[in-house]
Specification:
This protein is mainly alpha-helical. It is built from 48 helices and seven strands. It starts with a helix and ends with a helix.
């Protein structure tokens, strides 16, 4: 003990000067009420404005971005002090904790968890399961967790503003980071602030308000140096330090270690002023006693900051508590109710400066003292980092932790556990099985490169025939995803062929997987579309031949058979199979058992609805959103929201569709996905936004050409036809429709036929109109639904004369009145009114035109509304141009909230549908009531009715 005391005393003597440096940069924070940080007036003012906004009832988000040592942590300390009258919640990302799901989020929310009692039961259950406070055996709904966190913060803010400060976000576990970015994009009126600090942009930060923290200017750099070392540096030395540090405060303050070198005689080798910010801490730690360095290695490896756990780990290593003292004296670490490093870099360097043996010893000690019942996953992770070679017992522990991580919605954590389990598995066969499972997990989180490496590992070991087929299927999925991302047209088409080959291989091994593989091949071929026009027929022929051996029973079998029939024998002949498949899917969705259909094949169910002219898009799209959010499959949610937007278009709710598109766009940015363009183009077309349609369509056509994804190009031509028919530019609409009809795009070809008939008739190309009508008639009569018959009657009427035309127009209106297709009903009334104005007294034409005009105005369909207005004016009825959409002063989100409230949903239910807090719903409704001059939800229902 005496020897250790002498060593410790010597260590303290060596670091006394460096202690002053650390104290200057990290802890010498001025009183925010009197002064900001030196040289940081702009940044401190921005952070002060953020806190003032919270105090005034608004929510704010800010990302502090800058290199290591630039002063982000000092700014966060300043921010905490400035927000002294707020509830301040803090979390720090830790490298060794990156693979534990929800670890960072739990750290942040722990002080306000008592507010969970006020959450809805589903949100409370999801939150408790995510934080390991309870277990229900299934993965928690990730979006319910996000809403629960939003609800916690809003509840805490009811007492006083809440400020959440998250440092070193780049080391936060992925699930926590995604959840916090989700929350950040939904803060509006909760008096909650979220401030993230990180070194460089990461997935999810795009679009968030960012404050770049750069270096100090020369004047402030000199001032900092002179205040830290008054009178000790001559002008030449100061000039060199300022020049080489590039304004990095921590680099500036490393200079005391090199003062003697600057004063060395001429010809003597000089030490550089800044060998890197991390080198500063590395030297500081190296100057400590051996026992103290080991203490820091253990503390850096233990992210919870539990002093009792740390004490037990030291005891396990045979170290005394006094080993902490020199590190505390050096202001590297602080120990009271929690163990905290004074700067995140100090923790990072303390961990990285340890040798491999020291790191293993630290993790081994932590594993030994971690309760396997209370925290089995952290114990398993410490064990995994402690072993020096393969160890089946530890690998099995990790595999079990991966299962628990999946149940908590932590796919990224499961991937990390399984990857380490692969490395520790001694048996080649078992290693291959685990590598395949790990690769599948990494594909789910879009970690494609790691998934490919794991597949190579799996392939080297002995695999069964079924496992090899699964491996081939997964590799093809990776190639297809990679080709779509990179724009590799050749690989995209080749992947479709590979999907088919895998399906054939699976036929003799696993019939269910074979069906799924064929469905995957068909869906992939649909995306390729006109870029490889013969591809879909080849896939369909193979799938049809494979599926004729037995009668399909399950929804996925029915869907696969229906698609194969559609592409092999045509739309009309395949109509019975398609209707049977759609009914099975809808029934399965109502029973809550159709999660598969959206997770893997979002293109199939939506297209099937259009092919069968069904009215069920709203029902299926709403289930798609619930399914995607319930499974925590972030990558699928934007597509689900966009699909629901498409359903709202048919209902004539274009404001709601726009809001959903914006929501999908925000979520795509948050998860670093390219925002979807399919439904954005269609919504813009029905809104009559010609410039937006032109911009999106031009980009889509070029993208489809270069990337080999022909479907998006076909949809671009369809959107162009719709918007130009609305604008009355029929020749342009006809040209777009002709181009689109060169290929049989599954799903929207029937709509194209309808647009083509109208454009051709108006452009006086009746021969082409008759040809198109023949194809439309075949499809519509095979479907036989009111929607199909209404579209057919309208198109036939355009090519008819006299009483027959009028009868067909009225028949079309009657059919559409029996559907939820309000936008097509208005369109039928418009063309009927146009016909009446030319073939009957003008006064008779006014009524259908007036009803159509009013409907289009309320819907927000500007081009068709203007077309109806011009016809009314020509019919002798003066009518001024009106702003489109009901509640014309309402924003898209206010309109969407108003509609849901008018349907009788509670604030909590609206919040759940729109992924915002109930407090924000209430705030928006107050604005809606004021703008519309109403006082109750009953008034709202009447006003929007």
């Amino acid at each position: 003990m005496t020897g250790f005391a002498r060593t410790a005393a010597g260590g303290v003597g060596c670091i006394r000067r460096s202690r002053q440096v650390v104290n200057s940069i990290v802890t010498a924070i001025p009183d925010p009420s009197t002064a900001a940080l030196a040289g940081r007036d702009l940044e401190c003012r921005a952070l002060g404005d953020l806190v003032d906004a919270l105090r005034s009832g608004r929510s704010e988000v800010r990302v502090l971005q800058g290199e290591a040592g630039i002063g982000k942590t000092a700014l966060l300390r300043y921010l905490r002090e400035y927000a002294a009258n707020c509830t301040v919640l803090s979390a720090v990302g830790v490298e060794s904790d990156m693979d534990l799901a929800f670890a960072g989020l739990q750290q942040l929310c722990a002080p306000v968890l008592h507010h969970r009692a006020g959450l809805s039961q589903p949100q409370r259950d999801a939150l408790e399961q995510a934080f390991g406070l309870s277990s229900f055996g299934i993965a928690p709904d990730r979006f319910l967790v996000g809403l629960a966190v939003l609800g916690l913060l809003a509840a805490a803010a009811a007492d006083r503003p809440v400020l959440c400060v998250v440092d070193d976000v780049q080391w936060l576990d992925q699930v926590s980071a995604q959840t916090l970015f989700f929350v950040a994009r939904r803060l509006q009126a909760e008096s909650v602030g979220l401030v993230f600090a990180l070194r460089s942009p990461i997935d999810g930060t795009a679009g968030l308000p960012t404050l770049i923290v750069g270096g100090l200017d020369d004047r402030d750099a000199r001032s900092l140096l002179e205040s830290a070392f008054p009178g000790r540096l001559d002008a030449a030395v100061v000039d060199r330090i300022v020049a080489e540090s590039r304004g990095n405060p921590l680099a500036l303050l490393e200079s005391p270690k090199y003062v003697d070198a600057f004063d060395a005689p001429a010809g003597t080798q000089r030490v550089p002023v800044s060998a890197g910010v991390e080198q500063h801490y590395r030297q500081l730690i190296n100057d400590l006693p051996v026992e103290t360095r080991m203490f820091l290695h253990v503390a850096a490896a233990e992210p919870v900051g539990d002093p009792a756990l740390l004490t037990r780990a030291l005891a396990h290593l045979g170290l005394e508590i006094s080993a902490m003292a020199p590190a505390q004296d050096a202001e590297l670490i602080h120990v009271d109710t929690r163990v905290q490093f004074h700067h995140p870099l100090a923790r990072s360097v303390a961990y990285r400066s340890a040798s491999l043996e020291q790191r293993r010893a630290a993790h081994g000690a932590l594993a030994a003292v971690t309760d396997p019942l209370v925290d089995p996953d952290r114990r398993a992770w410490h064990r995994a980092l402690a072993v020096a070679s393969v160890d089946e017992d530890v690998a099995l522990d990790l595999e079990q932790s991966a299962d628990r991580a999946r149940q908590r919605g932590g796919t990224a954590s499961a991937a990390a556990f399984l990857t380490r389990a692969v490395e520790l598995t001694p048996d080649p066969a078992q290693r291959s099985v685990r590598a395949l499972a790990a690769a599948e997990a990494h594909r789910e989180i879009a970690s494609f490169d790691t998934a490919r490496h794991l597949l190579a590992t799996a392939e080297r070991g002995p695999l069964s025939g079924l496992q090899r087929a699964r491996l081939g299927q997964l590799r093809t999925r990776l190639e297809f995803a990679g080709a779509r991302a990179s724009g590799d047209a050749e690989t995209l088409a080749e992947a479709v062929t590979q999907f088919t080959a895998v399906a054939r291989q699976l036929e003799a091994l696993d019939a269910e997987l074979a069906v799924e593989a064929y469905l995957e091949a068909l869906c992939a071929a649909m995306y390729v579309g006109r870029s490889a026009p013969t591809l879909i027929a080849d896939v369909a022929a193979s799938a049809r031949a494979a599926l004729t051996t037995s009668e399909p029973r399950t929804p996925i079998e029915l869907l696969t058979r229906a698609l194969a029939e559609r592409f092999a024998i045509g739309a009309a002949e395949a109509m019975p199979a398609m209707r049977r498949a759609l009914e099975a899917i809808k029934e399965s969705a109502r029973a809550g058992g159709a999660g598969w259909f959206w997770r893997g094949f979002p293109i199939a169910h939506e297209s099937l609805i259009h092919e069968t002219w069904d009215d069920g898009w709203q029902e299926v799209a709403s289930y798609a959103v619930r399914s995607a959010t319930g499974s925590g499959a972030l990558a699928l949610v934007p597509a689900a929201l966009s699909s629901r937007a498409g359903a709202h278009v048919e209902l004539g709710e274009l404001a709601s569709a726009s809001s959903l598109i914006a929501e999908a766009n925000d979520l795509s940015i948050a998860i670093n996905y390219t925002p979807l363009k399919y439904h954005r183009m269609v919504v813009a077309a029905w809104q009559g936004d010609e410039s937006e349609v032109t911009r999106l369509a031009t980009a889509a056509i070029e993208s489809g050409r270069t990337r080999g994804e022909g479907r998006v190009a076909g949809l671009a031509h369809y959107a162009t036809a719709v918007v130009n028919n609305g604008l009355g530019r029929y020749a342009v609409a006809l040209g777009a429709a002709r181009t689109a009809l060169e290929y049989d795009d599954f799903g929207f070809r029937s709509g194209l036929l309808v647009e083509a008939v109208e454009a051709a008739v108006r452009a006086d190309d009746r021969v082409f109109a008759q040809q198109v009508l023949g194809h439309l008639q075949e499809r519509a009569r095979a479907a036989g639904t009111p929607r199909a018959l209404g579209a057919l009657a309208r198109s036939r009427a355009l090519l008819s004369d006299g009483r027959q035309a009028e009868a067909l127009y009225l028949e079309s209106i009657t059919h559409f009145e029996a559907t939820n297709q309000l936008i097509h009903l208005a369109r039928a009334r418009l063309v009927y009114g146009e016909w009446l104005r030319r073939n009957a007294p003008a006064t008779i034409a006014r009524e259908p035109l007036r009803i159509a005009h009013q409907a289009f105005v309320q819907m927000g369909s500007a081009a068709f509304a203007e077309r109806a207005r011009r016809e009314l004016q020509a019919a002798g009825q003066k009518i001024r141009k009106q702003p489109t959409s009901a509640g014309e002063e309402l924003s898209p989100q206010e309109h969407q909230i108003a509609e849901l409230a008018g349907q009788g949903l509670t604030n909590q239910e609206i919040a759940g549908q729109l992924f915002i807090s109930a407090h924000t719903v209430e705030w928006h409704l107050r604005k809606v009531f004021t703008k519309l001059g109403i006082r109750s939800r009953r008034d709202l229902r009447r006003r929007l009715g």
